[in-house]
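User: Show me sequence and structure for the first protein, then do the same for the second.

Assistant: Starting with the first protein.
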Amino acid sequence: MLKALFKKLVGDKVEGDLREIQPTVEAVHSFEAEFLQLQDSGLRSRTADLKKRIAAHVASLEEESSALKAKASAMGEEDLEQKEAIYDAIDTLEKSINEKLEEVLEEVMAEAFALVKETARRLSENKELRVEATDWDRDTAARRTGVTIEGDEAVWHNKWLAAGSEVEWNMVHYDVQLVGGTALHRGKVAEMQTGEGKTLVATLPVFLNALTEKGVHLVTVNDYLARRDSEWMAPIFEFHGMKVDCIDKHQPNSESRRAAYRADITYGTNNEFGFDYLRDNMAQRPDQLVQRKHHYAIVDEVDSVLIDEARTPLIISGPTPKGDQQEFEELKPKVVNLVSIQQKAAQKFLADAKQLLTKEGASKDEIAEGGLALFRAFRALPKSKALIKFLSAEGMKQQLLKTEGFYLQDNKREMPKADEELYFVIDEKQNQVELTEKGIEYLTANMEDDNFFTMPDLATELVTIDNGPGEEEAKLEMKSKLMADYGVKSARVHTMNQLLKAYALFEKDVDYVLMDNKVKIVDEQTGRIMDGRRYSDGLHQAIEAKESVKVEAATQTYATVTLQNYFRMYHKLSGMTGTAETEAGELWDIYELDVMAIPTNRPIARDDREDLVYKTKREKYNAIIDDVEKMREAGRPVLVGTTTVEVSELLSRMLDIRKISHQVLNAKLHQREAEIVTAAGMPGTVTIATNMAGRGTDIKLTDDTKTAGGLAIIGTERHDSRRVDRQLRGRAGRQGDPGSSQFYVSLEDDLMRLFSSDRVSKMMDRMGHQEGDVIQHSMITKSIERAQKKVEENNFGVRKRLLEYDDVMNAQREVIYKRRRHALHGDRLRTDIANMFFELIEGSVLAYHPGKEFEPFRLSLLKDFGIEPPIDADAFGSQSPEDVAFSTYQEAERVYRTKLTELAERAHPVIQKVQEDPSNDYQQILVPFTDGRKTMQVATNIDESVASSGVSVMESLEKAVVLAIIDQYWKEHLRDMDDLRSNVQLARFEQKDPLLIYKFESYELFKAMVQRMNAEVASFLLRCTIPTGQQGQQVQQAPQRRPGMPNKISLSKEGVQNIQEQAMSASRQPGITPGTGGRPMPPPPKKVEPIRTEKKVLPNEPCPCGSGKKFKKCHG
């Protein structure tokens, strides 16, 4: 009532959104009569006119930007400050161009939409489009079946191949689809019911934004949809001269994938877009880059991509030292024994609880004792079927909640008393397992070392060593042993906890499946296999050990990004889905995406019934099978939605017993997804599918099916998220089709056990509920939805927390990747190097100037730059820090430029000689540089080097040095950040916020890393030289350029369970690249012996210089 009153006073958002967009729909209709008069070629010419209008609108800004780029390129080394200012102005202009483009696109939107609609109408009604054949038509005809060349004419037919099957175009945009297209163009989420044609809706904003030639990305949830939609919708765009491609058709880092990104419209999966971004930021040459700037993206099934998968960072990783040294297999027997003895203890507690709580005339003390036994059984094994069944008995759930409340009060002060008889405790809501003192005693009972699982107190032990007797060297050795012991035990305790979690919380065929002797994660939202994804922080290895399959080696992160931060890089982002309204708050908070509910083309005729609530799962499943049998006999197709593989297989066995033919779609059978969903609308067909399996493929009904009552949806359980339940309901009632949806719930379901109020169980107890009785009422349904809201709030907190952590990482990632891009392209590299020099000098000045410490400052300059200060000690003390820093920077710059000139002069004659040698046909040459500690081979183009008198060699040197050092330090920093993220969680025990500590410490880590990186770059560039001598001058051809990723790289999506695990894990355990998992490491390279070019002179022999002295006393 209050909601209705509020709606009347303030107004309805849906109606307001529709009123705002209605003028655009009317404007589209106003063009229709005009376009009817045009020839087919006239439609094409209007597209060309629109492109010209858009280009003209931003032409002045584009010209200004080009002029500034040319000016910056022509500037010399002495104008670095002005050059940097020009580049800043170019960046500002880019933003202005994007804003201007949005202005002009809004102006031409109605005309562009009308063009797309008229093209679709002519293909549907006229069966073909005829135009004068151009080179574009001929190229398209050569690769697409729907286009033929007849003399001078090109004929675009309305039949072509999509995903291997012939499709016939028979769609024309409805008005509600025009509304959806407008919402998408304006950067909103269009919530459209299943069957309303989201794929067709997307053609409108995709066409409009592709007119800018900046690139449009359409993101899908799987490669089948990406390939299908790119081929299905392509002729609509290609007729107008737009190039369409799909990145999932091409190999990573290939020229064909690069071409796919250069297309006007690019389809692909969210994972591939994200991984290509990471690969681009590991490239060593500009020609290895595949992506261009992120301009506009439409995310299909936006709730699945930006919400469900947003907790799973994309990771590119590689081998780590000693990654195969793990204790999972060694500790597994101990964990198996521990779990076994805990199960026996839990059974005993449950038996005691049953005896005491069901005893007639039980005293208050006996009831309290029984409640404690029941609570201990729950803390020991909360998923025990016997426990769940007992809790469904009258009054038992209330007794458990009462006992739990007692032990949770006063900040869990009494909880140790409840846990003292347990070996480990399970917190199912937080998805955590914790070893107790009794568990540690059991594990170490027969061991020589009682402290096998006990971590040493580092601070106390170190102080004891410092204050104890002995020499400094002996103390240092003792400290080293202590740190080593701490590291070993830390890893051991962590391994034990992860094994416990694998056994206690993760179930086969529920959380994961075994396929091809590999543990593969099942997506809890979609029921699909998550190929290449692994649980983090050693959990996946623990599950592998549990299932006795090969335990993969640990790896380290090379590059990582969350989908949240990847998609926030786009200039404009929009999405479409059938269910987003329940997550509208999250989409706005994180992405600033407004959700707009689009009305259906025809009224929904589906009958959504109130939930049926049973007391036990057995009763519920029997009722479901009865309902399926009744619907099937009526000739209706039935879609049974389950939440896990286990339940789908259980129902399948129950249907087999009754001899009811059916088909199953779950994570184990996801390859047959399209085939199964296509047949699901046939009369009498029974389909069991996990959650949202089959998204993107409509269940189409026959006339007989509609007459019988349409598709019957049966939900076997309420999902944690209302959005998933709405998605399941939405499979029926497509385009006004008849249908029904019914959810079956039991008090033993996970959602009801963990989050639902105990009012339902109390009500059933008061009503004298008998076996098989059912409750159905709107109040019950609303109570269940309130429980779902609790879970949604918790899940949002998890994702929000993850983003807060990743935002810290993202700020650092942007700085590093920006420097890397500048180095890769070279246009701003010189400015970046100058900034590195200045930051390094400024850091030294700020460190030593306050104390007037001239000598340490001098040593710092000698160490980093190899130069003496340009001022003396008196001037260092009297001048301001700014003046000291600036004068020192100028001296460093002068020395560096002199150095570059000298090196170019030394390299030029050698390279020129190679070019003039007719026997050499080299294009690239390797030039060696060394700073006395390490040597770097720099590849450079011979012709460019000769033409620039060696200057291009120095540019190649700068680029190679900066890229190599950035990559080295960034990988080390990622590992440090992983460790930091794990360690800061201990701050909770000190009543501190781990996130605040993480932000502060990560800033300090990053600042120190940048300082070291700057020092390394400056040191090498200012100290390096070209080696002299026969070996140093040896000419080598640079290796051929080959696209591709570095060896032994794997891609993964990290699995995340909850906030604690997410916070502690970061990105340590990556997945295995499909087809390469378990591959043995290649043997180490053979040792290369040095090449001696002259006879070795012994120390006591005469010196070859002719001085008459011994070699060791002269030149030795």
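Switching to the second protein now.
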Amino acid sequence: MPPSMRIKRLEIKGFKSFPDRTALDFGSGVTCVVGPNGAGKSNILEALRWVMGEQRVKTLRSRRMDDVIFNGSETLKPLGLAEVRLVLSNLNKISNPAYNDYDEIMVSRRLYRDGASQYEINNVPCRLSDITDFFLDTGVGKNSYAIIEQGRVEQIVAAKPEERRVLIEEAAGINKYKARKEIALKKLESTSQNLLRLSDILSEVKSQSLALKRQAGKAERYQALLNQIRLMEVALISAKIERWGDKLMVIGTEVNDLKSELEKTEFRLVDRGAQLEKNKLYKLKAESEHQDLLNKKHSVELDLRAVRETVKRSADRLLDVKSRMENIESDILSNIQTRKRATADFDALSQTLEQTRLKLNGYKSELEQALTGHSELMETISSSRKQLNHLRDSLFRSLQDTAVARNKKESLLKRRHEVEGQIARKKTERVNLTAEMESVRQNIASAQKRTDGLRESLSRLDEIRKRLSSAKDDLESSVRASRTELHEWEKKLTAIQTKLKTLEELSDNYDSYDNPVKFLMKKKNESNGKFILEPIGEIIDIPNVYHKALAGALNYRIDMLVTKSVGDGVELTERLRTENAGRATFLPLDPRVVDTRESETFLEGATPILDLISVREGFQDVASFLFKNVFVVQDLSQARYLWEKNGLNVDLVTLDGDLISRYGEVSGGSREIVGEEIFKRRHEINQLEGHRQQILAELNQIRTKSSLEQHELSETRKRLQESSDEFNLLKMEDLKLQGQKENLMNRLSNDEKRLRILEADETRLDREVNHILQELEQSETSIDSMTKRNESIEDDKDKLQSRINVLNQKNSDRQSRIESLKIQSAKLNERVRASERELEAAQEKIGNANEQTRRLNSEKLKGSELIDQLEADIEALNSRETQLMMSHEETAESVESVKSRVSYTGDLCSKLESEVKELNLLVRNNTRRLNELEVESARLEENIRNASEQISDRPHVDVKKLQAELSEINEERLDSLKQKLAAFGPVNLAAISESKAVDERLHFLGNQESDLKKALETLHETISSINQTTRERFMETFERVNLQFLEIFPYLFGGGQGRLELTDNENPLETGVSIMVRPPGKRYQNMDLLSGGEKALTAVALIFSIFLISPSPFCLLDEVDAPLDDANLARFNSMLRKLSDRTQFIVVTHNKKSMEESDALFGVTMEEPGASKVVSVKFLN
């Protein structure tokens, strides 16, 4: 059956040496690409790699990607486009499920001179990743084990075990899981960084929230008092403000609703994203199961087709047998007719023969009378001839015996000479063998001495190797520990730098200050600080233990801005009013200072805060103005005691930030003091910076230490490798000496046996010489006696011959008559014999007919038995076919079931993706709407503030209620309230809304943190599931490949053993794959010591093992058979032919035997220099 998704056609235009459009139609089986060196054979395979998405120019034997475009020749111009099209058969629907509706799939790639490129699948533009995904886990692709280019065999053998595991991963089909895992790990890293950054932001926002809550409380009290003072002025614009307020409330409600909806939507988005990842994993598993079922269905179809072909052959044979039986029946009837005709001819011939015999008897009677006298004479002659013949025989036997005796004598003489020569040679050989044995004994003693020396060297080197290996292990542990420590310090540094960056950004943005301060500091940066110098909080610092005390002493003056002059402060105040940017307080660089500082002797236990703070250069007058009468005490009890006892004109602030002013005002409590976070943040920044410098120094030390350890480890590894190499060389020399010694011992043993045999042979040959001498003496005596007897027989023979001559003359006359009668009788006898022959022929014809009838009947009986056997076989095969069809139907149902599950999961993923897109769109829309509402809210708040400023910042109240309350207000009460109002100092009126916004942001960030933690859990579960699936598939595939390798290696090598081993059985996700081999007649040895042919066969054995458990639709081999000899090549081609039933092979080769085994040939030539041309040849089987 042709392989699934095989290559049907390859079209090349403008790629490398193919300027014209060249089409190659590939069939199933083995296709060879042949041609001279440099003709462009390998360019065909590179075109296949390129169209399947290859991006590595080195793999394409180029320097730049545009080098693949035809660059012209002596007569042809360069082209501006390279294009390759690959048409794949998809009849069995084994490809990507998205293309199961197509029987053919065409993958195209184009590259232009300007660098533009284009990919297409079935003429539809796509991305490179789509091409990669299409070929992913199909057994083919740009990095597949099915593409073995020149040098890849050596790469497989020489590769590190960790690099070699890629082949097993490709066969196991886990690349898609690795891709999913990489995506999940990137998301995990991104989510972890986001969570870390979010934690830092949460910490800062919490601090900001505390400060804003305090400011908001003050602002609320300030607003209540301000409303009481300016109730009368509100009536002018209260209606307008009331409308804006209603609209602001509506916007605020909508903002809250939008934020709530946004949080829910983002939660749904995270949840749906996690569900989508899980469903994608389920889909991958279902697709894998679907692929396995398709393979099973394919196997059942192969078995079913084989059974059907067997049934067809049996049925055809049954028809042939039945046809033969009919012919036999016809032959039997024909033989019966022939026998009848032969019987009739036999009877007629019998009558003719009888008549001829009667006539012959008359001639015989007359002849007998003539012969009677002749017989008597002939008896006399015969008796004489017998005597003569007896004498001749005696003479012949005697002469023969004499010749035998003489031959025996000659043979004995010759044998004597041979034996004496053998004895001489044996003696010479014995002397030489004795000398050789002495030499062998000396060589054995010399080899033993060399062996003892080598053993001592090996022992010494082994000790050195152990020490170096131990040192290497210690250094590797130390290096790993250093790397781990370095990684931990880098993680700490990253965390500190992230937090430091966040804190510095908050500090640079003046995040803890009121909005007017932020506004003016931003303008300062734009105007290069023309008017503003710094906020108060930025020019003063104090030890950590006094942060609260300093914040309490400054109170809300922390937001004061230092200007160069009072005029600058006035100008900036006007600018705030013009820009509607709020209110701020300004302090000139040289304020008017009246020194009223009390003597320290009256404040026992109190410390002037000026003695504790550090002030930036140039701002000492500002610090003196702010803290001229401020003292730090331990607690409120001490502050109260000093204030009540001494009545001093000073402010007393405790370490907890509680304050008793010189006027007796007391402020304090449990909430964080305004401005404290500014000093805390600056202190934390300084601490983090110091910590960062310490970590950097520690990192430098660790890196230096790690570098030294790495250098020492490299040197140790080098020395260990040198020792190991020397050890291996000595070990091999020791093994060689052992072999030589064994050979010498065997040779000595054989020589000793040979010596004993020589001595025995000499003894035997001496006895044989003595025996030959005795026989020669007997032969001489026998020859003399035989000569005398021969002479006597010769005389008697001459006398008897004279008598026989006389009798012969007398018999001549009678012989003439007898001859005449004999002629007549002979003619009749001839007629009788002719008749008898015809009669015998007729009788033989009858016998042949009978024999043929018996043979046909026997053949008929055997045919009947064969028919019964074939009918039984066909019935059994039909039963097997029924079973296979049922299995096929069950498998098909399972395929459809899994396909439905894949489709359902795919639909669910599509639905989830659509929902995620919709949720993303909803989040963007809500965020955009929220920003619009916040802008509108800010605009309305600005309008309200502007309106309030027009009536001296008076609050909005009900006009009717205002009119009812006017009678209760008097001038004295109003002055008192104004004094209270003036005591408030700077107030951040926007703190109320800002505090609410920050609280909402805090809630939103908290939800985000929870969602990110859930996403982290989901990603960890996904990665764990992927690791489990990858681990199981890798181990299962490794075991199956190893079993195949155990069988294929001895087949390809004609013996020997080979196996695969994992370098780390405890860690299947990272372990390497080692190859252990023992060619026939050798021990297990290092791969580097194998010959080129052995390395090639080992790599081929591994590749074929993978093919047997995970067959690729097609395989590309570029001169893999080059290093193989004829015997190995025959086994290689046999295995290739065996695998060609399930895989389509395209082989680039120069070997004639490989060409003979192919089903088709493509010849690549260059009719014109620089331009390749293809000629195809197909073989008829």
